[in-house]
Specification:
This protein is an alpha+beta fold. Helix content is 48%, strand content 13%. It has one domain: Creatine Kinase, Chain A, domain 2, CATH 3.30.590. The chain is built from 15 helices and eleven strands. The radius of gyration is 19 Å and the shape is globular. It catalyses: L-cysteine + L-glutamate + ATP = gamma-L-glutamyl-L-cysteine + ADP + phosphate + H(+).
Length: 362
């Protein structure tokens, strides 16, 4: 059974006003004093962000328990200095992001200007282990059409600088400003993958291969494929669903590769359209079906994804839970829908944030 790890980025906010707080250095200093959390939390581009990474897990129940624990520990450390955490992929309230002071982040601020300043966006990255780079590239080539469905399920960023954007995942639109971000062409071999990365770094447009922001990539640090399309999810159960489906996609793709099944040859242009539609609609309208690239109701596209990975999920015992969680999202709404419903009920973006703090730790 393939192991799975999750990286989540959380927003540091004032518990009363809901406004983002640039206190990540202080929170990290608190975490470093706790032996159990020294290797869990990391700094990110902006001081209003805090990232944690789980350990690799084979059981989704174990993964859920660790996500819940890390969220609660993040809230505890933040609470010690007067703030808290919210699993929001953008800040609903206006914010002036503070870029970290290390050399890497300052290089990015100088090179990319306002795009860096405005990149206060928070994602969920899923690592699924693979046996080799060869298997990993084969997986990257074959999961491409399905990643937009993960983006739709996880969408959790409808607001930007105090306004409703009209998007379910505005985070993904801001993220696309990086020059190396987005879907990729079919690589076909490990050599071609690594050659493309080297060529991109050689342009000097990105600092190094850590700035290869493909939707799915080979991890630099671990023997994994890293899937990077999801918003940070409001609820831990949604994060577990994304990890479950990601593992199912990786296993299904690896089996297709071993069976000699060629990847679906959608162009990057079509994949970008599918990404845009997922960001715009989330689960409230239509998505582009990964096989046909034609518009279909979101429910039908989600059902197709479950069918696509069904055999792999059944073998790991995750299929029924994945179906139940998907049904719950389609019925009750993803994070974007929850945020909009909270605003409609309360009339206050501050109340949206403070209520989402509670959801984050539920």
């Amino acid at each position: 059974m393939r192991t799975v790890g999750v990286e989540e980025e959380l927003l540091l906010v004032d518990p009363e006003s809901g406004e983002p707080r640039a206190l990540s250095a202080a929170v990290l200093a608190r975490a470093e004093q706790d032996d159990a959390d020294q290797d869990v939390f990391e700094k990110e581009l902006h001081e209003q962000m805090l990232e944690f990474a789980t350990h690799p897990q084979s059981s989704m129940e174990s993964l859920r328990a660790e996500i819940v624990r890390c969220r609660k520990e993040a809230a505890r450390h933040a609470g010690e200095i007067g703030c808290t955490v919210a699993a929001l992929a953008t800040s609903p309230l206006p914010v002036s992001p503070a870029v970290g002071v290390n050399r890497r982040y300052q290089w990015m601020a100088q090179e990319y200007g306002i795009a860096t300043q405005e990149q206060l966006v928070l994602g969920c990255h899923v690592h699924v282990n693979v046996d080799s780079d060869e298997e990993g590239v084969a997986v990257v080539d074959r999961v491409r059409p399905w990643l937009s469905v993960l983006a739709a399920l996880s969408a959790n960023s409808p607001f930007w600088q105090g306004k409703d954007t009209g998007y379910s995942s505005y985070r993904s639109r801001v993220w696309q400003r990086w020059p190396s971000a987005g879907p990729t062409e079919i690589f076909g071999s490990v050599e071609r993958y690594h050659r493309r990365v080297a060529e991109m770094v050689a342009t000097g447009t990105i600092l190094d291969d850590a700035m290869i922001y493909f939707d799915a990539r080979l991890s630099r640090r671990y023997p994994t494929v890293e899937i990077r399309v999801s918003d940070v999810c409001l609820h831990a159960d949604t994060a577990v669903l994304i990890a479950t489906l990601a593992r199912g996609l990786v296993e299904t793709a690896a089996r297709e590769w071993r069976a000699g099944t060629e990847p679906v040859d959608h162009s990057v242009s079509l994949l970008r359209l599918a990404d845009w539609r997922a960001a715009r609609s989330g689960l409230t309208g239509e998505l582009l079906h990964p096989a046909t690239m034609r518009r279909m109701p979101a429910e039908a596209v989600v059902r197709s994804l479950l069918d696509h990975v069904g055999e792999a999920l059944e073998e790991t015992g995750d299929l029924e839970r994945a179906r139940e969680t998907c049904a719950g999202l389609l019925r009750d709404g993803n994070g974007a829908q929850v945020q909009r419903a909270l605003l409609e009920r309360t009339g206050s973006l501050r109340d949206v944030v403070t209520e989402c703090v509670r959801h984050t730790q539920a």
